[in-house]
Specification:
Layout: E1 13-15, E2 20-22, E3 25-26, H1 27-31, H2 37-46, H3 52-65, H4 72-83, H5 88-96, H6 105-121, H7 129-145, H8 164-174, H9 180-191, H10 193-196, H11 204-214, H12 219-243, H13 247-256
Helix pairs in contact: 3-8, 3-11, 3-12, 4-5, 4-12, 4-13, 5-12, 6-9, 6-11, 6-12, 7-9, 8-11, 9-11, 11-12
């Protein structure tokens, strides 16, 4: 073995000619067939094995975020595959690159918003529903006074309620894992109309961010879980695109709908 004057420490994994070690365990002998992919994903990030209840909540989050139909990310992935059918990796990456403030990124944004509101409250958290409602109103008002939208509120399709939200809240409650982030998120759902003047649904991406934060994950990593989940959905879209292509029809529909508007061009010089 060549001696290098550098050291790159890692607690994730290593391999040699005869074995692969992951998280301190023999991959082939101790993990394969014994650990689910969801459990492994949690373990890799948290550097601890999840408890059964934590795993149930975590995997419910992954399922909730896996797909939402022909979203821009799914369309981007399909169109990329249409143009480069040899590049599944490019198509998958194209779909994931749109995970921002409107799609997928809300999971991180909501977790960050809730964490900041709780941190501003300090160690003395409310002890009853009325107290949580007061905190929720203050958090929403501060966000709106700063000219920002409240992450986790509203949905372009599920205007009367996102079906994922009550299910994840129920699962977290059943497992004893409805912590301060989810509790504050629920209170925002009850009280935001006082500040905003209209009622909006608590969306699935937001409740997922709150649930992940209650599992102990830092806001900076939350979008990664949304992307991990959506990668599975995008792979499904790409497999379907290979079987029953829609990309070419999407492209033709867009192309045939274009209305060319000539720019204001100054006269050419004589």
């Amino acid at each position: 073995m060549t001696d290098y004057p550098f050291s790159y420490p890692t607690s994730i994994g290593k391999s040699d000619a005869t074995s692969i070690t992951l998280l301190g365990h023999d991959l082939a002998g101790e993990l394969m067939g014994r650990v689910s992919f969801g459990e492994l994903a949690f373990w890799l990030v948290a550097m601890r094995r999840p408890e059964p209840g934590e795993l149930r909540v975590f995997e419910a989050v992954l399922v909730a975020l896996a797909d939402h139909g022909f979203t821009p990310s799914a369309i981007a992935a399909r169109l990329t595959l249409t143009g480069a059918p040899e590049s599944v990796q490019g198509a998958l990456a194209a779909g994931l690159l749109g995970g921002g403030s409107r799609y997928l990124g809300v999971t991180e944004d909501c977790g960050r918003f809730l964490a900041a509101a709780l941190a501003a409250q300090g160690e003395e958290l409310p002890t009853d529903e009325a107290g949580w409602d007061v905190l929720a109103v203050a958090a929403v008002k501060a966000q709106r006074d700063a000219g920002r939208l409240v992450p986790g509120l509203g949905h372009p399709i599920h205007k009367d309620g996102d079906p994922r939200t009550p299910v994840l809240l129920r699962i977290a409650s059943e497992e004893g894992l409805k912590g301060p982030h989810l509790t504050l998120f629920e209170a925002i759902g009850r009280t935001h109309v006082v500040v905003i003047g209209r009622t909006l649904p608590l969306n699935g991406a937001g409740v997922c961010g709150a649930a992940l934060a209650d599992l102990g994950f830092a806001p900076d990593i939350l979008r990664g879980f949304a992307l991990l989940a959506r990668a599975a959905g995008l792979l499904g879209h790409l497999a379907e695109e290979m079987r029953n292509p829609a990309g070419s029809a999407i492209y033709r529909a867009a192309d045939e709908s274009i209305r060319y508007v000539p720019p204001d061009v100054p006269p050419a010089r004589s």
